[in-house]
Write a structure and sequence with these properties.
By secondary structure, the protein is an all-alpha fold. 38% of the residues are buried. It has three domains: 64 residues, Tetratricopeptide repeat domain (Serine Threonine Protein Phosphatase 5, Tetratricopeptide repeat, Alpha Horseshoe); 78 residues, Tetratricopeptide repeat domain (Serine Threonine Protein Phosphatase 5, Tetratricopeptide repeat); 139 residues, Serine Threonine Protein Phosphatase 5, Tetratricopeptide repeat (Alpha Horseshoe). The N terminus is likely disordered. The termini are far apart.
Length: 310
Amino acid sequence: MQALKVTVACLVCLTSVALADKEPVTATDFYERGTHRPDSEKELALADLNKAIELDPKMDGAIWSRASLLSSLGKHAEAIADYSHYLKQRPGDYPALFNRAGEYRAVKRYEESIADYDDILDGDADFSRYGSPKNHALARTRHYRGNILLEWTKDYAAAAEDYSKALELEPQITEVRMQLAELHRKLGQFDKSDADYREQFEINPEETGLPSAWAWQLATCPDERFRNGEKAIELARKDCEKSNWNIPAIMSTLAAAYAEAGRFDDAIKMQTRAIEENKLDYWKPIFAKRLKSFEQSQPLRHDPRVKKAS
């Protein structure tokens, strides 16, 4: 079996060498050599694809490959041009529209990025080249359009709507539910954020950052209906143990949970430990303020709608 693996590897290697050594003549030759070059030869691959397109301007495979390569080289404006060229030949192609939207975002042309996402969701997009179910494509589009709305317009409600619809299409997108929970908190919709955290915990209790994020709301929410000190302690301890007690911010969340449960001595000890472990200037005044609150037997209350860190 091992010998077979080595033989196959050698054949692949020899094929690549043959493609690299063969002097290309036709557009297909240049395309084949360009798409088989290793990552260390991206500029040479680009030159090959340029030549292929020069010889055959309608070779959509070469145009697509060059667009992807230009993107990987950080040449987003040129990638946009190639995806646009590709879309003239394949109108409504979902992968091209989706990728071009990402390129527009990379150069902060947000309105055009949203327009491409809109065309996918509201127009006659062609999903025939996409290897996964259509619902997956639509969920990805909702997710990424929501990201643009959040980044550009700061329209939390519109972004939350896109995230919610993405989850309706594909409930397993864990990243979206975590983003949605945070948006619901910023909108003051604590009942919805609590439901988001609970649902995600049922799906994947090991989700990175989930226990401490939910613990923070349970420990500090301004609405007492969604506070639960004991549950917050359980969740925050889970994340502290998972991170080997190496993340001061999570330790501080555990301190807040202790305070909500009325265990102020434990809160002071844990917050002091977080201060001692912290190396980031950002957290120093925040942690000091929290420690002072615990020393005064006051639990934390954090309203995310207020643009001040607590």
